[in-house]
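Residues determine shape. Take a concrete instance:
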Amino acid sequence: MDEKILFVDDEAAALEGYKRLFRTEFKIDTANSGKSALSTLSQQGPYAVVVSDMKMPEMDGIQLLTRVKTVAPETIRIMLTGQAGLEAAIEAVNEGNIFRFLTKPANKEILAKTLTAALVQYRLVIAEKELLEKTLRASIHVLTEVLSLVNPAAFSRATRLRRYMSHVVKTLGLGNPWRFEVAAMMSQLGCVVLDPETIKAVFAGRELPAEEQARYDSHPLIARDLLANIPRMEPIAWMIAHQNQPAPVEGDVSDREMADMRQGAEILRATIAFDDLLRKGVSRTEAGTRLARQRRDLDSRIFYALVELDPGRDDAEIRTCTVDELATGMMLEEDIYAKDGSLIVAKGQEVTEPLKLKLRTFHDKDAVKTTLRVTVSKPSALAAGAKV
């Protein structure tokens, strides 16, 4: 049995007792305070189960298990207490999503059965997570490939937004970063139903007729509807639906989840506004300054992060290469048009295997030019193993 269990109690004798009781049945680690437990989780995790005493100094069991829920959401949480009050039990369950609430002293048989049930629950959670991640990865891959084929300009923008979002989320230290990155990558998905010329006009800053503008403005809702039927994508779909307007508080989700959704929508809105300014020729510094003045309600670190990261990659240099010399990880430095004038691939798109195949197909038909301008990693980065 590989899963580990962490017991937390401020009484050393109690911790030693748990070790003796279960030394042959479970892998047991101990911590003598909430602070120590969080440090152990960070340095020695993951843990399948955390069992905490209720009454401890500085950080009690409710506070600890609530923190555990945030930093290690898959970990199963169990409360032990010598105070069997109903109010404490209700608070523990509501605040920390406690799997079991046991009174002390719990006999070995009851505690062993509880730990076994917790491990079973943990395995189910992990199995579901792995299945979900594989399903989501496959779904997102298909959708992004469809967007890249149908509307290259929208796809190119989506890849830029994802890079911005990734850097902002890392700067802010947000949990579940994949949610925010997927929201950015999928934010332009609704453009698949629009005429590519509409997207081209929007990105060029040209004014659209009212009816055409209305169709363009509806693309976030189209993306929301496309994504809403994929399991666990509802929060992401909500962020995307509110990418162009202030995000209201709505829905019957937990306060924590709603806060994350609102934050994701607001960051996405900021990255889109930032990208719009850059496409109009505004410098990164000026764009960040303008947005910071307009959006004083947002964390200023968002704008610093946007200014700091160049979607054209500061660690890259521009080269010219043939279609045959393209390698994954390169970034296109120019729009690629077919000889009939239609856009095949937009500037800023990262070279992937499907993209290489697409360009090879057009090249074999003599439909695109032979040489392309790309950005590649500088020699210092290449030394670490990048392929050119």
Summary: Residues 108-150 form the longest helix (43 residues). The CA atoms of residues 168 and 302 lie 6 Å apart.
